[in-house]
Amino acid sequence: MSMTSKFMSRRAVLGGTLAAAALSLVAHGQDEHGSTGHKATDVRIRIGFNNLTLTATLSDNPTARDLISMLPLNLKIEDYGRNEKIVHLPRKLTEEGSGAFGNEQPGDLCYFKPWGNLALFHADYRWDGLIRLGRFDNGFAPLLVRGEYPVRVERI
What we know:
This protein is about 25% helix and about 35% strand. It has helices spanning about 5-35, 60-70; strands at about 40-50, 50-60, 75-80, 85-90, 110, 115-120, 130-135, 150-155.
């Protein structure tokens, strides 16, 4: 093997190794930052109102991390339609990495992009303008209590 072909083979091997590493980093970045993946974290929040408490485990996405950066919050929770309660946030959250998700079901905690509020679902829903933040841990019975209440949202 000539010196030139040895040098070219080393370049090919090195180039292939670098390309594989770059693709791995890109794929890892998409998994970590995309909201379409519903990978749960160990980050949990408590939502308390009217002497009732909900806990939720958050998904690993930029919007959920932005919500955590704002906590604790003392706001208001109110009924919205027949299937959810909402909490108006003091500012909009990042929508970076948002995308469509499936498997919508009661017990989802979502962020409503157009209005910038939390949507806490206790019945079936479908809406394209949502980012799933997580799911309630032990059911959603407190959401069935109708009315408007002061609410505290905090990390636990």
